[in-house]
Amino acid sequence: MNKVLVAIGVALILVAVAYFAYGYLSSGQVNVYIQDPGGNQAASNSSYVRIYLTVTSIMLHKENATGNPWVTISNGTETVLLSGSPTFLASAKIPPGTYNEVRLVVSSAEVEIGGVNVSATLPSAVLKIPIVGSLKLSGGSNVNLIIELPGVHYANGMIIINPATEAYVQG
Predict the structure, then answer these.
(1) For the chain, what is the domain count?
(2) Under-50 pLDDT residues of the chain
(3) Checking phi first, is residue 91 left (phi over 0); if not, alpha (psi -120 to 50) or beta?
(4) How far is CA 14 from its chain centroid?
(5) pLDDT at 25
(6) What is the extent of the structural domain holding 159?
(7) Alpha-carbon dihedral sign for residues 125, 102, 71, 24
(8) pLDDT for position 136
(9) CA angle 140, 145, 151 (to 5 degrees)
(10) Which one, of 132, 137, 143, lies nearest residue 33 by Cα?
(11) Strand duo 28-35 + 87-94: pairing
């Protein structure tokens, strides 16, 4: 009887270890950050501005995927203040693989200049951002992805957030 109980206990432990090992190795952690590498300096007059973006979706494009190549990181709404330092947006455990593009859906953009908030224009509500050198994620790994949104410029009386952006893996 004792041998049977010991065998059942050992079997349960082995199943639990296999379950946790599979969960650990079958996905990797991606942490997404955003920053303005220029530190929010307006291009035309070098005055300090604060840029606020409301992001409603973050997805990564998986290379050589079968079926839908887009993997969702977040569908939550998050308003962030861009700064010269990376600001956390979202994180998720996703399948291992090589990812080459970020899709960032932005519902609104505001710029604060001299204490006054002004709506800013984004040429597209969906930013398709290439990942420089791709993001290679393996099971059990933890990767930081930095999106650089390079600030604002003025044109035709409008404040426009520059869509020429890229992302890179940090570390």
Answers:
(1) 1
(2) 21, 24, 42-46
(3) beta
(4) 36
(5) 57
(6) 28-170
(7) negative
(8) 96
(9) 170
(10) 143
(11) antiparallel
> CB of 132 within 8 A of CB of 168?
yes
64 Rama class: left (phi>0) / alpha (psi -120 to 50) / beta: left
φ/ψ (deg, to 5) at 138: -110, 160
Q: Which amino acid belongs to residue 137?
A: L
CA gap 32, 92 in Å, rounded: 9
Contact 14, 58 (CB under 8 A): no
CB 26 within 8 A of CB 94: no
- Please write the tens of the pLDDT for every residue from 62-95: 999 888 999 999 999 999 998 888 999 999 999 9
Residue 130's Cβ-side half-sphere holds a number of Cα atoms within 13 Å equal to 3
In the structure encoding, which two tokens stand for residue 120, read together? 């800013």
Confirm whether 60 is domain-assigned. Answer: yes
Output DSSP code: residue 121: B
User: Does pTM top 0.85 for this prediction?
Assistant: no
Confirm whether 129 is domain-assigned.
yes
Residue 9 lies in a domain: no
In a domain, 114, yes or no: yes
Amino acid letter at 117?
N
Paired tokens of 126? 């969906």
